[in-house]
């Protein structure tokens, strides 16, 4: 099957769509490795899904994709299946050839289990696939490799939202400037810059360095040892640890694009509310 024959189809599963979020392509990137790009992408996708959106998380890191590991998924179907001319599988929807269902309304298109040369996936295939996904999901969240592969380039060009991730250290922040340069060169949307793995009480120096580099930080995400633990269990942090500072930070980021579900706003314990006496 090729991307061309994959006509838009009915909703892939029963989660009710919300037109306010329809078809947003959120691209998550860092020019420097190990800063938490995959972690942020997985948790943005999970947080959007928790707000009732039909989400597809796409792993474009063909060389070393980690989404399957982060969510403990078996990469039986992968993005490379978009190239298959025919398939023996009985599929109800064209997307079934590609997707892995995490739960209803939360699907992934995984990178191959074996490290693969990105050249095996022709660039024009992705240029067809992303608009197709946009037409059948409320949000398409794309985890990208550090390299400016043809696929990263296509993702930048088709992004509605570009999230650049950094950690609060000089070398990572310098990497951030590479990401910013890439976004300008490709005419991508103005990036939302996320500072990940921020220790509480730390940070003004990082803010100062960022300002010196001409970078404005939109959201800071807490460093939390539970991130690794939830990852080892194959769970997104926002689901495993809904009351953690990390989850609050991701929620603040996602608030920029998707409203919270009514009734899901966090309720502060009564005794901590100002003016409340028990
Ligand atoms: N906020 C955080 N607090 C604590 N640990 C974190 C946080 N964000 C990410 N990590 C940890 O940092 C490590 C790298 O995260 P991740 O794989 O998401 O980075 P990456 O930028 O995608 O890396 P790569 O370049 O290999 O693709 C993981 O062990 C992850 O658990
Ligand atoms: Mg990664």
From TrEMBL:
Residue span(s) of domain AAA: 24-177
One GO CC term, this protein: cytoplasmic side of plasma membrane
GO terms, molecular function: ATP binding; ATP hydrolysis activity
Any single GO BP term: negative regulation of cell division
Pfam families: AAA_31
Domain of life: Bacteria
Name of the molecule in the record: AAA domain-containing protein
Lineage: Bacteria, Bacillati, Actinomycetota, Actinomycetes, Propionibacteriales
């Amino acid at each position: 099957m090729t991307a061309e024959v994959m006509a838009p189809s009915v909703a892939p599963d029963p989660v009710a769509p919300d037109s306010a979020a329809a078809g947003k392509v959120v691209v998550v990137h860092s020019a420097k490795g190990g800063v938490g790009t995959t972690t942020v992408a997985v948790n943005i996708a999970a947080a959007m899904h928790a707000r009732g959106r039909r989400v597809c998380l796409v792993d474009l890191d063909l060389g070393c994709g980690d989404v399957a590991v982060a969510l403990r998924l078996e990469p039986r179907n992968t993005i490379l299946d978009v190239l298959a001319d025919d398939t023996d599988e009985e599929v109800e929807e064209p997307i079934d050839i590609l997707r892995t269902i995490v739960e209803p309304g939360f699907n992934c298109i995984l990178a191959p289990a074996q490290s693969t040369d990105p050249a095996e996936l022709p660039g024009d295939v992705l240029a067809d696939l992303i608009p197709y996904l946009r037409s059948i999901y409320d949000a398409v969240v794309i985890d990208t490799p550090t390299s400016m592969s043809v696929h990263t380039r296509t993702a930048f060009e088709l992004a509605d939202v570009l999230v650049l991730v950094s950690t609060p250290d000089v070398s990572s922040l310098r990497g951030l400037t590479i990401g910013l340069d890439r976004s300008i060169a490709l005419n991508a949307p103005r990036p939302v810059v996320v500072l990940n793995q921020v220790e509480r009480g730390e940070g003004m120096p990082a803010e100062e360095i960022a300002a010196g580099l001409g970078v404005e930080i939109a959201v800071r995400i807490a460093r939390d040892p539970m991130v690794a633990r939830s990852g080892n269990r194959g769970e997104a942090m926002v689901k495993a640890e809904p009351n953690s500072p990390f989850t609050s930070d991701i929620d603040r980021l996602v608030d920029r694009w998707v409203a919270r579900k009514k009734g899901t706003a966090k309720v502060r314990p009564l005794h901590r509310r100002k003016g409340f006496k028990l």
